[in-house]
Fold this protein.
Amino acid sequence: MATSSSNESGPTLPRQRMSRARLAVVISGAGSNMLAIDDACRRGDLHADVVCVISNRADAAGLTHAAARGIPTSLVTPINGESRESYDERLASVIHAANADWIVLAGYMRILSSHFVGEFTGRLLNIHPSLLPAHKGLHTHRRAIEARDAQHGATVHFVTAELDGGPRILRGVLTLRPSDDEESLQRRVQRIEHAIYPEALELLARGRLRQTDAGAELDGQPLVEPLERHFDF
């Protein structure tokens, strides 16, 4: 997912302020992670607010779910023959209009342009359904089973030029069961996603986490390996 631009002082982060962080959540489907994030905001576990939900698909059920909660929604559909860069410029305009601090990819199924990622470096997060760096890309649950992995899970990471390769923040880990198939494993991992994505975002909202030219930094120290949470779902 797209490109990062560098300078000696690191990426420009959202302004520090006492008010709650503003999240723009970008989806392509049902938006289950978006709903989990919004639930955490409403409970007070995440000191942020979902200020906009954006989708590239008109049939994304997450748009309906967000609207039912009173969250502003935007549909940015691709135009036939449009370049990735042109599409991402329109997406960026919606994000800017929402005055978002953080851009949260939650089941967004488009590859981002290098210009878009460079523009939002340090403010752009994704969650991937594997224990990165293992199983980048699609069909992660099937591949974990076929590889006879002992463990599987999900990873929250900053987005950089390398697909699913940005600095890792937090991994949720489970043990595969002999009875697991692709569908059952997907359901188990999704529960992990719903737990760890709000936790990672809270680190951002509290000002404890940031992306630097060297990678991720937590409480002023390099995050050499991601944080880990183990689950028995």
Confidence is low (pLDDT under 50) at residues 1-13. The CA atoms of residues 156 and 197 lie 6 Å apart. The domain at 21-128+154-172+192-223 is CATH 3.40.50.170 (Rossmann fold).
